[in-house]
Design a protein that fits this description.
By secondary structure, the chain is an alpha/beta fold. Helices cover about 65% and strands about 10% of the residues. A hairpin with a 2-residue loop joins β4 and β5. About 30% of the residues are buried. Adenosine-5'-triphosphate (ATP) binds next to α12.
Length: about 575
Amino acid sequence: MNNFQWIWQYVKANRKKLVIATIFFLISTALILVNPYLMGQIVDKVIDNHQGRLLVPLLLIMIIVTLVRTVTRYIYQLLFEQTGQNTLFDLREDMYRKLQELDFDFFNHTRVGDIMTRMTGDTDAIRHFVSWVSYQVLECVFYFVVSIVVMSMINWKLTLALVAVTPLIYILTQKMASAQHPVFFEIRQSFARLNSMVEENISGNRVVKAFVREDFEIQKFNHFNEDYKQRNMDAANVSKRFLPWQDGVANSLSVIALVFGGYLVIKGEMTLGDLVVFNGYLWMLNQPMRMSGWLINDVERFLASCVKIRQMLASKPKIEVRNAQDQLRVKGKVVFDHVSFHFEDDPEHAVLTDINFSAEPGQTVGIIGETGSGKTTLVNLIGRFYDPTSGEVLIDDKNARDYPIRQLRDNISMVMQDVFLFSNTIADNISFGRPNLDQQYVQSMARIADADSFIVKMPDGYDTVVGERGVGLSGGQKQRISLARALAKDPSILILDDTTSAVDMETETKIQQELAKMTTKKTTFIIANRISSVREADLIMLMEKGHVVEHGTHDQLMAQHGKYYDVFQKQLGLEKGEQIGPQSV
Ligand SMILES: Nc1ncnc2c1ncn2[C@@H]1O[C@H](COP(=O)(O)OP(=O)(O)OP(=O)(O)O)[C@@H](O)[C@H]1O
């Protein structure tokens, strides 16, 4: 399917509008023929034959024609614009749906700026094509064909002389299109890079300021900015190479009409009035020739945007999304059976190797280990954010792959390491997983997460709107709100990835005590750096380079006097040091 056929899939829903628009377009465009004809009549009849009484009616008709043209033109332009906007609306919706469907793998490989360019600049290029370029092309074709027919009826010799230059325009247009094609694709790519850079700078503005790297960032921006300017200049240079020639050929029509037309009038093969009429229609032949270069630019921009949007719409999530018929409440048994995993683009690097464990419903599993040892990846396999490369993850003794993904995830709550809050009220953030929760329930979840105490002190309490990504809250506060959000969903499986890393020990203990009361029915995975966060767990796994090197309860692991024991001793020493510190000053 080519790009024009593809966009027709979206445009065709507006067929009725397009038919009406085309009727008005034809009326409006056909009326263009009337006034030059009437001008010829004025020259021949009113001026040459002295029929002065015809002047007023002819002028009146010309005024009415102009008025009708204006109204019909307004109507068809509006209808084309509506078609363009409707197309854009449906296209954007499909793209947004696709974004929701795509998985971690897509987002790992696609920059936000690139996605934003597709959602904004690219879709706008398509709207512009549907609502403006399309009827401009129609208009040009119409003018071209009709002007040749009408002019031939007046004088075929002169028409032939004019049409003789059109192959030149065709050749120039073809050459310009093939020269512009790669340039517009590059412009579009460069714009996406510029957008990505700006987006990254805005997201990381605190880091930039903290490291005093503003000048570096400006230089970096200038590089992308320069590149974008240069790509546009490349397009302008291509235009500059061709447009003057197209203009020249278009202008030559007037010269041919004047010289050859004058010759025919002198020879008596044409009246002066006919030459005036001919001249009146000349711009209709002229216009498509002049416009062709500009329209090529718009069409090439449209084609470059189509490629990027279609690429995104054709992307398939690695993990198949099947819709579930009904809801399902799992009990929460989680088994890893010889699970290994590596990322597709890094097959040499085994992130998880032969992981085996079993957690009964309601049990708590603690996972500790050095950074990069695979803890987050392990829990990501439970919610099928990735599927194992080999082995099986079983939920309630059924392969996780056999669950429709949304049905499975409905049973799982995650508090992610990198906390993300929406720029919405705190209450809405907490009830994100289960909208329309009552205030009391929201508050009780916040209490368990030890968030209620600081939320009620905020100016609007639970109705306080937090900034983008939770700006305005401390790291620990964000963690606690995101814990409340996870709890509010009332999942069978609760995953806490470094959830209390940013809260003090006292608060952590409080949260743990509250959690313990409610998590007896939930299988809970706790990833933590502090042993104090996992010591009560039914199973503790110590990870190293993707392997579980030690596992058992706290007491069993301590009795082994292995790595876990060493870590515990180290952390105990640190804790004591912290406690002794202030007293010893
Ligand atoms: N999207 C990715 N593509 C390729 N490799 C990745 C990706 N995400 C993580 N990794 C690699 O996988 C390994 C395990 O990462 P993971 O985030 O699971 O570690 P972790 O134990 O949770 O670390 P931390 O304690 O720092 O959060 C790391 O070596 C990391 O570089």
